[in-house]
Amino acid sequence: MIPIVIYDADCRLCETSRQWIERWARKGRRPASFRFLHFEEPEAVRLQPDLDAIGCLTAFRFLDEEGRASIGAAAAVQLLRRLPGGGLFAWIMTLPGVWRLTVWSYQWIAAHRYRLFGRTTR
């Protein structure tokens, strides 16, 4: 299965990040491929039955090739590991001390993303 990112397409930061990830995924000798689903799409709900608007408003989800789900900062690490050259960033993010800052930063930005970055006009 192609890895799937379930995200908030109404969030300008999230949508800009999707576009950035798609460009990054095409670079290098080993391009990566992902599917992106807005959390309200029927397929997203089918893949993650426990998914609800509240859960996805706090963190995006990453479903790997086997369908295992990661959420939030852990999802970002899994996604980075699959991007060309992203493994180094993923490794740095998971270092002791850095990981706590990564989780805290992710949670803070996610909680304030509409105020900081606005909404899309999709």
Explained architecture:
With 122 residues, this protein is an alpha+beta fold. The protein has one domain. The chain has helices at residues 12-25, 42-47, 53-58, 73-82, 87-93, 98-117; strands spanning 4-7, 35-38, 61-63, 69-71. Helix 4 (73-82) runs antiparallel to helix 5. It is globular, with a radius of gyration of 14 Å.
Task: Summarize this entry quickly.
With 122 residues, the chain is α+β, with helices and mostly antiparallel strands. The chain has helices at 12-25, 42-47, 53-58, 73-82, 87-93, 98-117, and strands spanning 4-7, 35-38, 61-63, 69-71.
Characterize the largest beta sheet: strand count, sense, and whether it forms a barrel.
Answer: 4 strands, mixed
The helix content is: 40-55%
Please give the number of β-strands: 4
The fraction of residues assigned to DSSP E strands is: 5-15%
Low-confidence stretches: none
Euclidean distance between termini CA atoms: 27 Å
Shape: globular
Find the structural class using helix and strand composition.
Answer: alpha+beta
Question: How many helical elements?
Answer: 6
Average pLDDT metric = 90
In total, the number of domains comes to 1
What is the string of SSEs from the N terminus onward?
EHEHHEEHHH
Q: Which strand order spans the largest sheet, edge to edge or round the barrel?
A: 2-1-3-4
Radius of gyration: 14 Å
